Each structure stands twice: as C-alpha cells, then as structure tokens.
Amino acid sequence: MMGAVGRILDRTALFVAATSERLNPILVKETRQSTKSALFSTVFLLFVSISWIVIVFGMLMMWSTLEISPAAEVLFAWNYGLLSFAIFVVVPFGAYRSLLAERELHTLDLLTITTLSPRQIVFGKLGSALVQVGIYYSAISPFIAFLSFLQGFDILLTSWVLVMSFFWSLALCTGALLASIMARHNQWNSANMVGLVILLLFGWIMTLAFAVAGDVRREMADPGFWFINAIGLVFGLSYVFLAIQVIVARLTFAAGNHSTSIRLVLSGQSWLLLIGLAVIPLLPMGSISPRDYDDVLGGAAILVSIHWVVGGLFLVTESDFLSRRIRSGLPRRKLVRLLVSPFLPGSSRGLVLIYGHLLVFVLATVALSLWRGVPESVDLQQMRVGGVANVVLWMGIATAISRWCRRRSHRFTPVAMRVLTVVLFIVAQIASLLPEFVDALPRSLSFLCPFLLPEMHNQHLGFALGFLVIAAVLSVVVNLRAMFQGAMQIVRDPGPGQLLTKASSPSQSSEVVSSAE
Questions:
Q1: How far apart are CA 104 and CA 265, in angstroms?
Q2: What pLDDT does 507 receive?
Q3: Is residue 12 part of a domain?
C-alpha cells in the first residue's frame, strides 16, 4: 500500500516538475518570490486567523438565536470584508510593486533583450497576481463551506459575489500594472503610488458596501439582471484586455509596433457593442418598447463617443513614421495593404479608423431602427448627430494639431500634443458656459459643450447641431489629404530595403523614440 502511494507521489512530482518547465518563466519566478515575501506571509496569516476568530466568536455571540437568525449572512459579510481587502488592495498593490521594482532596479531592460516577449512579461506578472487571488480563495473556502450549514446562507448570492469579485480583482491588478508603467520618471512614482493606494481603498469600500449592504438578492429575480451582468462582464474583460495591450505597447522597444494591437481591440469593442444592440430585441425577456430601445441606442451613442474620443486621442497623435521592422511585415498585395492601413501606426491612419467606425455605427443604428419598424425619436437623432459630430470635430482638430506641431519641430512629443488638445477642449467648454453669466452673449454659444446639448432649448438646438455638422465636415476636409497620403504611404511602400523620400526624412526618423510615448 505504501509503495503504491509512493509511486503516485513520485509521478505527481515528476508531472509538476515537467509542467512548471512549460509554464511562463515570469509566472514561476514571480509566484515563488511573492509567496515567500514577508507581505504575503503576514497578510495571509492575519487573513486566516481573523477569519477563524470571526467564525468562532460570531457563533458564540449568536448561539442563542443561531437556529432562527440569518447567522450565515452576517458572518459571510465579515469574511468577505477580509477577503475583499486582500484581493482588492493587497494583491493589486503587490502587482504594482512587482513591475515597478523591475524598472527601478533596471532589470526590465535585461528582460526585454531576452527571448521573452513583452506579452509574456505582462501575462507572467498578471498570472502571478491571479495565483495569489486563488490562494486567498482556497483559504476562505473552508469557512464558506461551514457557513453553508447555517441559517440565511444563499448559495446563488454567495457564488455571484465571489465570481464577480474575482473578475474585479483581475481588473484592479491590470490597472495597477498599467499605473506602474505610466510614469517615465522616478519623481512621479511616489505620487502614483499614493494615488493608487487611495483609489484601491476607495474601490474596496465601495465594492464592499455594494456587495454586503446592497439589495442584490431581490434584483436577481429579474432576468434582465443576468443579462446586464453578462454584458458588463464581457465589456469589462474587453477593457482589461485593452489595458494589457497598452502595457505591452509601453514595454515594446521603440522600433516595434505599439499601435496595431490596441487598434484591433478598440475596433473589436465597437463591433461588440453593435452585436449587443442587435441581440437585445431578440432576447426572451419580454418585448422592449420603442421608447426604451431609443434610450438604449442613445446610451450606446454616448458610449461610442466617449470610447473613440479617449482612445482616438492617443491614435491621432502618433507619429506617421514607420520603422523598418514594421514595414518588413507589410502584406504583399496592395489591396490588402489598403484594408489594413487604418490599423497601422500613424495619426492620419488613426483618423481613418475613427471616422470609419463612426460611420458604421451611424448606419447600423439607423438600420436597427428601421428593422424594428419604429421611426426614431427626435431626441435620439439629436443625441446621435451631436455626439458623432463632436467626435469628428475634435479628433480632426487633434490630428491637425499633431500634424502642425511635427512640421514645426520633431521635439513635440505625443504627450504634448494630447495635452494641447485637452487644454483647447477645456477652453471651449469654459467659453460655452459664458452665456450663463453674461447676458449679452447668445445662448447658442453653448453648442461648444457636448454635455449641454440635451438641455438646450429647441430654438437654439437647431443652430447648434447645424454648426457642429458644418464644423465636422470642415474638419474632415482639412484632414482629407493627410488621410489619403497616410493610406498611400502603406500602399506604395517599396519595403524595408528602400527608404521613402518623405517618410524617412531626418526630421521624421528622429520620431521613432517619441512615437513610443
């Protein structure tokens, strides 16, 4: 008997050793270091000890009413508070410090010159954080199993809280890794750390209040609750994946392609939203009224506008220069090059990508309204026109600013161009608020602020929307030549063996380093 057990243990050890050799080396290294650290050991022992104390003393305090009171609900709230602190604060902060320490000790440069890709480094760091989350979950599982024998235990609510908490911890760990590589200079690291700790503590308190004190149990009976959770989870994971692509881009060397993976994720999210809008009327949750569906389309218009404004600001301020490494991977056929050109680095090509997706969104929402056989409301049309026109206008302005700055000097970094665009946008918002304080100014000046359009009076709204449409068209016309040249730069590129006369001038070749910003 003992010989059979020994053989099983030997085979298990060999299997574990062989499996560890195939795993991500960063994952193995980070997991070993983190589980041996004093922080993890201290927090884990305190977590288990306090959880045990809560169960024991909680049972003693409620002993007389244990069979009639919801003891499991109260004790689970205490245990979940301890678990959430560990996976929402301690683990994300450890992930932040792990990548930041690589930069401070200059070991990240050594990792990037090995055979490990930036993607492997990021997934190794994130995987190590998730392993720690799994360890905390395994430690809390015996206490949850004990609570299941008490009154007031709801297995559906408990499972939902634990599953959603895992994904929220994944999002926080990804955000912490993103915060660790945002600052290029060490003097900003302290401010980033303090801000991150404050945000993690605030997020922990808000999540704990929602999960414990919120009336989630009653909402679970509504079928729409699970649909909203599924939609939120899918889009949340898509933004987690987007953040991972941003981290990978920041760790990629200057001559690499920093933009294509980010553009693909942004495009995928936009198409995912359109698929969701098409699926909503087909769900067996009762018929949705035309008014409610108009509200859904209006909310989608706002989300798309914010999505492409925030993401597009980074795309349209990139350099149009293409390194030899990027050009060596261009397709051979010119038609394929033309189709993939919006996904390649470059401000003008990024503008083509944004305008193309906005056009698809407008046509798709109009088609969805016609498909349902219900005419669109005036509010929906105004919201869609105002939102899309603002995105077209400001992305065109950002592209023109980027192009103008690079013509003046190559020392203008993408960060400087983004800051300049944001400052100009803030000035426009302040100007739109002046009619509220100066009676001599026309109320129609409020059209400069997209947030004031829904509240604008009808007699001024027509002028505002007309002006926005005209300004958006002018923005497209101003950037039309640049967009055409950006696409032709890809189509006519002879390859890395020959340098284009315009794309490889000395002023542009020095932009390789600045484009990584």
A1: 30
A2: 45
A3: no
